Amino acid sequence: MHKHCFNKILEWLLGNKDNPFEYTHHAVLLVAVVLYAYAAFLNYYLDVANIYNIYLQAAISLLVLIIWYLSRWKNQFRMMRFVFISVILLVSMPANWIGNGGSDGPTYIMIFGSLIYLSVSFKDLGVYRRIGQCYCILIPIPLIFIEQHYPELIFRYGTETQKQIDLMITFIIIGLFLIFMMESLATRFRLEKAKAEQLSEQLRALSEEDSLTGLYNRRILDKEYSSWKNQGRVFSLALLDLDHFKKLNDQWGHSYGDEVLVIFSALLKDIAIQNEGVAIRLGGEEFVLLLPLSSDITHQKLIQLAKRLSNTPLKHGPVSFSAGVAQDMETEGQYDLLKRADNLMYLAKENGRNLICK
Ligand SMILES: Nc1nc2c(ncn2[C@@H]2O[C@H](COP(=O)(O)OP(=O)(O)OP(=O)(O)O)[C@@H](O)[C@H]2O)c(=O)[nH]1
């Protein structure tokens, strides 16, 4: 129950896990909101930064919260990522340098953290990421220049202890942020992997399934045949074809024809499951049952199927099928087996239909 609530809150804050990139980035944004607010509070409390820098950190905390809101709720994810990293690099870093001890202060650590964050999390930003990386590496140069020429602009610590405390706290905060970022990146990869696996499973199912009846399609016939043959199993192949299906379609409509196909397929699926076999729709109103049974037993199973089909209440009266059953022979291949079953099925058609030949 608690876990469920927790997951609901996480989903509300971060979005759907189906989109791991957004999900983890929203987590980073919210952590940034907390960290900037915390930094502002701590700087104020310990008196280790210029008051304007403290205001700015509080303002950035609020701004990142707005960025999260627009990204999470107003579909502006891409744009907001860009705005976020720009605010950090173009506003926060220089302001922090000036308002928080210059080259003696913790800005070097923050720039280093930003460089890692930018390099790892903005892989898709291409040339902008490269520009950002160059910026991070080079930004100390103009800032040191300003510090040298306009030393009065730089906020200086009152005591050496204050400076050490500020450096230590910043180091810990940036360290925690990087740990969190790496962890969320690992989470993102895990989620993306799970999603890719789920999609590939769906794709596999789609590629092997007939969309109308939910039975397997021809692809599976080839696969199962080869596998059973390699295992040296005894098995039979039954080819089934609904009788006078064209007439049924013409008389009662194509969608009624579809209904009948679906009902017949459900019966085939039942037999396949009960006998650990496979039911396949070859196409149209033609089906294959691959059963790990002799042709005699398969023949009996089909007789039972014919009874079940004739007892199934259908809107426009009962339907029947004709079938040919052939047991696999060691010396023949898939084509020959199918051909024998096909010939037997045609024999059943020729002999008046509603018949199973073996
Ligand atoms: N409703 C529906 N009809 C289909 C589908 N696929 C094929 N058909 C129809 O199935 C009919 C097959 O007709 P035929 O091959 O002439 O065979 P039949 O009328 O069953 O005659 P016999 O097999 O000789 O008993 C055609 O009218 C096709 O249009 C489908 O997915 N849905």
TrEMBL record:
Record bears the keyword Protease = no
Keywords assigned by UniProt, alphabetized: Coiled coil, Membrane, Transmembrane, Transmembrane helix
Give the stretches traversing the membrane: 27-46, 52-70, 82-99, 105-122, 134-151, 167-186
Q: Does the keyword Methyltransferase apply?
A: no
Query: Could you say which residues form the signal peptide?
Result: none
Q: What is its EC number?
A: 2.7.7.65
Write out the coiled-coil annotation as residue ranges.
182-209
Q: Which PROSITE patterns match?
A: GGDEF (PS50887)
GO molecular function terms noted in the UniProt entry: diguanylate cyclase activity
Span of domain GGDEF: 233-358
| Source domain of life | Bacteria
Enzymatic class: transferase
Catalytic reaction annotation: 2 GTP = 3',3'-c-di-GMP + 2 diphosphate
Protein name stated in the entry: diguanylate cyclase
